Amino acid sequence: MDKAHYIAYPAVVDTPGHFTNMRRKLDHRYYEAHKQRVENVKPVVDNKAPRTYLHFHLKMKKIQMEQERLATVERNNRILLEKMACIKSTTGCVDNWNNYQPKSLNIGKRNQELVKITLDNQAILNRINATKSIYNHQKWLADYKVSRGYLTQITKYPETRKTKNKDCLPEINKK
């Protein structure tokens, strides 16, 4: 571009080539200041990317639970390896014995009640043995013999039943 034809602002004094160099420097300074102001201006609308928070993406509880799960898996694997090593070093028999003995919390109270009941039963037995019978078994035996005699008289066929024990009841047929 020709220097003579450069006029950014209309000159007050229209003299060709007069103050063109100075006008060009001044225009350039104004233009640079304008560019600086445009770069430094803050926008009214926020068009930046939203802030990313670490705790949204890094879930500590999930990581902790995963570590605990891995720890239990590792522990179970170690126990299984120990069992396999024990089986390999021994004959490999199945060890399925249940050595657990059930334990009751109130076994002492139950034992006390059992002792009390046993003592009460012994006292009742002693009282029963100490009392004399008020029934006359001799009379009962005589009544039985009479009723058996009536029975043998009215039956068509005599009874031929044999008793295993001779002491249990006397034979009625003997007269």
Automatic annotation (TrEMBL):
Pfam families from the UniProt entry: Hmw_CFAP97
Superkingdom, taxonomy of origin: Eukaryota
Similarity field: Belongs to the CFAP97 family.
The name this protein goes by in its record: CFAP97 domain containing 1
Native organism: Lepisosteus oculatus (Spotted gar)
UniProt lineage: Eukaryota, Metazoa, Chordata, Craniata, Vertebrata
